[in-house]
Specification:
The structure holds two protein chains of two kinds. Chain A is mainly beta. Chain A is 0% helix and 56% strand. In chain A, the strands form two sheets. In chain A, strands 2, 4, 5, 6, 9, 10 and 11 form a seven-stranded mixed beta sheet that branches. Classes of the chains: A mainly beta, B mainly beta.
Chain lengths: 114, 109
Amino acid sequence: SQTIHQWPATLVQPVGSPLSLECTVEGTSNPNLYWYRQAAGRGLQLLFYSVGIGQISSEVPQNLSASRPQDRQFILSSKKLLLSDSGFYLCAWSVGRVYTGELFFGEGSRLTVL
Amino acid sequence: RKEVEQDPGPFNVPEGATVAFNCTYSNSASQSFFWYRQDCRKEPKLLMSVYSSGNEDGRFTAQLNRASQYISLLIRDSKLSDSATYLCVVKESNYQLIWGAGTKLIIKP
């Protein structure tokens, strides 16, 4: 069966520090991968998606970046965090296009920037 | 700007009651709609898709009203375990889903 894991689960970082969140998927090949952010009281916001190794599409301008060095690995990074980067970050995968609308999410990473 | 709007709640409902909540969407061209469930501090999980003719899955019924641009979720015989936040989702493209902020439901014994 397919599984998705992301880490770390929780982190507290000072403003201006770097960030690296990692996500891996097991049990499937060539998944579409996504990074979402969920701020308090707001809907999930798509940050990046990837349809293959090295292919990254950005949905919103920001100081974050994403990379996909391997088929089932997706990394979210920042060189310098801002206060506004605080939130709940979710990695997700889907099979092919989001035709069914079903995304499978990791457990999430809760980031607090101080 | 395409939006999905939900009443944030919370809806406080006694166990065994029926509860319904709606979600409105702004893009009349939207074709696919979904309800996700998110437990406190957990990841969202797909509850059900919403079909044009309406659909039912056990105690859950989803309806789509294209003319008024809203979808609804009805929960019958509510259980304590139904307590969660329910997220309305509209598909805008093959890679883009627009998410509502969610409606919080609290089932009380």
